């Protein structure tokens, strides 16, 4: 703990010495112009390098998600067809497991 406290004291002492050496520069420092400069540099970097890279990555993940959605849609259609087939088989039977045929006269009314 004493080592960390010593590092902290030396760091603050070093910062204060640098600030005392450059009093005029610190007094003339304007935060708004500094931030405008930073924002312009970031925008320049974004449109020169990062924008195209970001769009490529986005396209890659959108393509993968589209393929995944199509696979899920196909899976759901197959399951719906299976459920519909089970439902149709149950509608066509008379409860005993025997299918109802139109030429069967025992089940007609």
Indicate the topology.
Layout lengths: L1 H20 L1 H5 L3 H62 L17
Low-confidence stretches: none
End-to-end separation: 96 Å
Question: What proportion of the residues form beta strands (DSSP E)?
Answer: under 5%
Number of strands: 0
The biggest sheet, with number of strands, parallel, antiparallel or mixed sense and barrel status, is:
none
Helix count, per DSSP?
Answer: 3
Helix content: over 70%
Run of helices and strands: HHH
- The general outline is elongated
In short:
The chain has 109 residues and is mostly helical. The protein is built from 3 helices and no strands.
How would you describe this protein?
This protein is mostly helical and 109 residues long. The protein has a domain at 49-90. The chain is built from 3 helices and no strands. It has helices at residues 2-21, 23-27, 31-92. The longest helix has 62 residues, at 31-92. The protein is elongated, with a radius of gyration of 38 Å. The model has no long low-confidence stretch (mean pLDDT 85).
Core attributes:
single chain; 3 helices; 109 residues; 80% helix; mainly alpha
């Amino acid at each position: 703990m004493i080592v960390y406290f010593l590092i902290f004291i030396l760091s603050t002492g070093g910062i204060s010495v640098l600030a005392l050496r450059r009093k005029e520069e610190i007094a003339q420092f304007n935060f708004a112009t500094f931030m405008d400069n930073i924002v312009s540099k970031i925008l320049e970097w974004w449109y020169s390098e990062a924008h195209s890279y970001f769009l490529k990555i986005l396209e890659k993940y959108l393509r993968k998600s589209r393929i995944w959605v199509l696979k899920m849609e196909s899976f759901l259609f197959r399951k719906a067809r299976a459920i519909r087939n089970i439902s149709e088989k149950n509608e066509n039977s008379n409860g005993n497991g025997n299918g109802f045929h139109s030429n069967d006269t025992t089940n007609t009314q």
